Amino acid sequence: MRKILVGIKRVVDYNVRVRVKPDGSGVVTDGVKMSVNPFDEIALEEALRLRERGEAAEVIAVSIGPEDAQQQLRTALAMGADRAILIKTDAVLEPLTAAQAFLAVIVKENPDLVLVGKQAIDDDAAQTGPMIAALWDRPQATFASKVEIKGGTAVVTREVDAGLETIEVDLPAVISADLRLNEPRYVKLPDIMKAKKKTLDVIDLATLGVSAEAGLKCVLVEPPKPRAKGIMVKDVAELVDALKKKGLV
Amino acid sequence: MSKILVIAEHDGTKLSQATARCVTCAAQVTGAEITVAVFAAEPAAVAAQAAALAGVAHVITITAAHNAHPLAAVLAPQVVKIAAAYTHVFGASTSFGKDLMPRVAALLGVPQISDAMAVEGAYKFKRPTYAGNALVTLEAPADRILVATVRTASFEAATGGGSAPISAVSVDAVVPTHTRFVSISAQATTDRPELTSAAKVVSGGRALASKENFELIFSLAGKIGAAVGASRAAVDAGYASNELQVGQTGKIIAPELYIAVGISGAIQHLTGIKDAKTIVAINKDPEAPIFEVSDFGLVADLFQVLPEMEKALG
Ligand SMILES: Cc1cc2nc3c(=O)[nH]c(=O)nc-3n(C[C@H](O)[C@H](O)[C@H](O)COP(=O)(O)OP(=O)(O)OC[C@H]3O[C@@H](n4cnc5c(N)ncnc54)[C@H](O)[C@@H]3O)c2cc1C
Ligand SMILES: Cc1cc2nc3c(=O)[nH]c(=O)nc-3n(C[C@H](O)[C@H](O)[C@H](O)COP(=O)(O)OP(=O)(O)OC[C@H]3O[C@@H](n4cnc5c(N)ncnc54)[C@H](O)[C@@H]3O)c2cc1C
Prior knowledge:
heterodimer; A: Rossmann fold; nine-stranded mixed β-sheet; 6 helices; 13 strands; B: alpha/beta; Rossmann fold; 2 domains; 8 helices; 25% helix; 28% strand; binds ligand 1
C-alpha cells in the first residue's frame, strides 16, 4: 500500500461539559479546549502502525475546518503523520459536505485506504465514513476493532450490536475506527518540534468546487431537560423497599 | 402525504425490535403511509413479523442470495432504487442502520438526520449532539427524500395486531462484489433479555475489578430478570464483552430500571442512560457524578451491597 488518508476533526475536548447558548443558536465554543476527535487519534494510530509494519509508505492527515484546525493537524504530525492537508472553511459542515471535500482530496492523492473515526464526538453523526465510501464507490468497513491487510484486501473485524462481525473488502476502501482498535500513542516533546518542519498544505474549500451550503436548517439548539433530583438511601433494605414500592423488583 | 420506507433489521429469522421502534417514529409523522422493506435471502418469516406491526401499510420483500448478510455496500444501491417512490427513508440508529443509511443518503445526494429522537414535523426532527448535552432541531427540505436514523430509545416498539399485505419486489441494481461477509461471532444466546430492549438493566463498571467479580452483576441481573450492561472501562479491561457497553459510543438504552454498580458516571456513560425511568447508583464515593442523575443513590461498597441485595430480594 502506498498511501493512507486519515480524517482529523477538530472538536470540543471530550472532558468539556458543553453549554448551550441562551439564544438557542448553538453551543458555547469560545475559550473552550479543542482537541483531535478521540476516534480520529485511533484511526491515525492504526495508519501509523500499518506504516510501521511496512504495509504503507505514507500517512496523510486531512482536516476540514477553520484555520485553527492546523493545531490538530500539528498534533497528528507529531504523532507521526508524514504530512497534512487543511481544507479551510469557516462554515459548519454537514457530513455530506465533509465527504465531498474528502473525495476531492482522494481524487488528487489516490490513496489505498481512508481511515476515519466512527463518529465525531461533537455532532455524533457517524455519517462521514460511509458517505465518503459511497461517493468514492468503494467498500466501507465501519466500527473496526481489528484490521488486517492481506494483499489487495483488508480483513476487518467490526463491533456490531450482536457481537463481532468479520468482513473482507477490496482496497481501496474506507475504514472507520471504533474504540478498541488500538490505544493511541502519546506525543513526545521532540516529536512536537519535528512536526513543525513537516508539510502542512492549506487549501480553500471553495477552490475544490465544494459548496459549504447546508442542506439541513438548524432551527434550535437547546439543553436537555434536567432529571428530577433523587434521594440517597442509607442501606440495602431501604433501597430494595423503595424499588418494591415502585413495582420495579 | 408522507410515504415512509423503513428498512427492516433482522438476523434472517427474527425482525429486530429496533425496526418496531422505527415504525413508531414513522407513525408520528402526520398522515404517514409506512412501508417496511425486508432485504434477505429468505424473507418470509421476517416479512410476516413486519406485516403484523400496527401502523404498517405494506411490506415489500427483496429476495436475493447477496442479501443474506447485511452489507451496506450491497444493500445501499438497492435501497436507492426503491427510495425514489418514497418521501422518507428510515433505519434504526443501530450498528446496522448507522452503517447503511449514510451510504444511502450520500448515493441519493441528500444530508441525513442521525438519531432522530422526536418528530416535530414531517421534515423536522430533534436529535442529540455533544453526548446529549445539546439537543438540535433540524429541518430538511421538503422537496427531497429525507434519510434519517431513529434513536430507538426514544420510541416504544410498535405493537402487534397489524396485517399488512406482503409483496415481492425485484430491484435491478448493480450490486458490488468488493465487500464480502466472512463471519459473525454473536454472544451465545441466553435467556437473559436483550440489552437495548430490556425493561431492567444492571450495569457494572471498572470497580468490579475482574471478569470473575463481574459474575456478581450477572447474578443480580438474573435474579430480577434484567439485562447486563457495562461501562467502557469494564469492557476495555475485559470484564465484559463489547456489545454490553452502554454510552455515547456503546448502546443507548431506556429501561424502566437501571442499576449502575461501581460506575462513576462520566458524561459518555450518562448519555446512554438519560432516558431510563429510574436510575439506581451504587458507588462508594459520595462525590461520584452518577449520583447527580440517580433517583436512588447508595454510598457503599458494592462487594457488600450485591450479595445483600440478592438476599433481600429473596
Ligand atoms: C450546535 C450545532 C449547530 C449546527 N448547526 C448546523 C447548521 O446550521 N447547519 C447544518 O447544516 N448543520 C448544522 N449542524 C450539524 C453539524 O454541523 C454536522 O452534523 C456535523 O458537522 C457533521 O457531523 P460529524 O462531524 O459528527 O461527522 P461524523 O460523521 O460523526 O464524523 C466521522 C468521522 O469523519 C471524519 N470527519 C468528519 N468531519 C471531518 C472534518 N471536518 N475534518 C476531518 N475529518 C472529518 C472524522 O474522521 C470523524 O471521526 C449543527 C450541529 C450542532 C451541534
Ligand atoms: C470518545 C470516548 C467515548 C467514550 N464512550 C463511552 C461509552 O460509550 N460508555 C462508557 O461507559 N464510557 C465511555 N467513555 C469512557 C468514559 O469517559 C469513562 O472513562 C468510563 O465510563 C469510566 O468507566 P467506570 O465508571 O466504570 O470507571 P471509573 O470512572 O473508574 O469509575 C469507577 C467507580 O467505581 C467506584 N468504586 C470503586 N470501588 C468500588 C466499590 N468497591 N464499591 C462501589 N463503588 C466502587 C469509584 O468510586 C468510581 O466512581 C468514553 C470515553 C471517550 C474519550
